[in-house]
Amino acid sequence: SRKHDLLLHLKSGKNFLRTQDPESACLQFKNALELAQRLNDPIEEKKAARGIGASLQRLGKYKEAIQYHSMVLSASERVGEDSGNTEAYGAIADCYTELGELDQAGNYYDKYIARLETD
Amino acid sequence: SRKHDLLLHLKSGKNFLRTQDPESACLQFKNALELAQRLNDPIEEKKAARGIGASLQRLGKYKEAIQYHSMVLSASERVGEDSGNTEAYGAIADCYTELGELDQAGNYYDKYIARLETD
Amino acid sequence: LETVPTIKKLRTLVEGIRTAELEKCFSKMGDDIPKKTRRAVDDLSRGIVNKILHGPMQHLRCDGSDKRTLSETLENMHALNRMFSLET
Amino acid sequence: LETVPTIKKLRTLVEGIRTAELEKCFSKMGDDIPKKTRRAVDDLSRGIVNKILHGPMQHLRCDGSDKRTLSETLENMHALNRMFSLET
Questions:
Q1: CA C7 to CA C80: how far, in whole Å?
Q2: Which residues in A27-43 are b (16+ Cβ under 10 Å) and which e?
Q3: Interface touch A94/C61, C-beta < 8 Å
Q4: In sequence order, which ranges of chain C are alpha helices (DSSP H)?
Q5: Cα separation, D45 vs C49, whole angstroms
Q6: Which of A94, C49, D5, D39 has the smallest number of Cβ neighbours within 10 A?
Q7: Beta-carbon neighbour count of residue A88 at 10 Å?
Q8: Which pTM value belongs to this model?
Q9: So what's the ipTM on this one?
Q10: Which of B113, B115, B118, B119 would you mutate first to test chain D, the one with the most D CBs within 10 A?
């Protein structure tokens, strides 16, 4: 099934990240994202978007990474379920730090920090 | 079986600790300790001794607590298996801190800290 | 703003510890880990790490409006840099 | 030696976080948790906490033989007291 394929792409994306192959990881996560969007599955969509963001960060593509991490936030808003947001705020802030945009980084770290005590 | 009874005493000791009843906890752990020693089971003996130590600490009996936490260390030495030692060093140091014997506390914290990076 | 890179470095360091321990845990638990278990364990690791980081992270941010807070924030940063060997 | 009580307070605080998160995790995992799983999860929580604490704890201890180290150790202590609200 498509859902099964989706989960396989996510899993193999994670494995590629673990074995330091962010380019292959990114491809797998992009496949997963496409399937998740077609299946209208926001939970898996967030995981795919986060995976793409993480892969792009490893590749030094911080601006693109921010866009994908932001997809997690917008998916959360859309469905009213905020899992993954803490991680997304932190990752976006990390990217802005790398880009030298420390003001923006600070803003996102503040959102990240505000969520650290919640579950 | 005795082993079964032993595990029940340990479990109920933990529950009493969790519900802030260290006196009942201490009794249960003491029963467990006796059985563990009779069964010659050093792993469970350590758990029982640690439980008694923790209960006594809650009761403010720090000198006695040190004796039981030290039983963990001697059981480890006896069987050549050092699980629980990090926790025991830390707990003994905590007790010495409460007793105002900061030199001794420092010595045990040093042993505790030296083990924090191992598994 | 000087403290922003420290936040990033501390996050990276602690995330490395978290994922390393998580992998060790999953490998001990064998192959057939129920999804619910995997999720609960992942949440556990995040919960511990986030709750420990909350205080230090908060004390690396300040609005910079009064002087005492700024100098304290910088002291916190220097202490964290030392304690976690964050300067590379 | 002035830093010894800080070590105890920090240990206590972090142990409280660890056990609270651990109980949440076990309650999510249901009743029949295999012993191996329980053990692995407990090890995970200790592993994370101990590895995070290692640096700060080490920097709260010094032999006191040279002055710079002592003053740095005290600064570390003050920063930890602030960041984890350890003064009661």
A1: 10
A2: bbbbbbbebbbeeebbe
A3: no
A4: 4-28, 35-58, 67-83
A5: 10
A6: D39
A7: 29
A8: 0.92
A9: 0.92
A10: B113
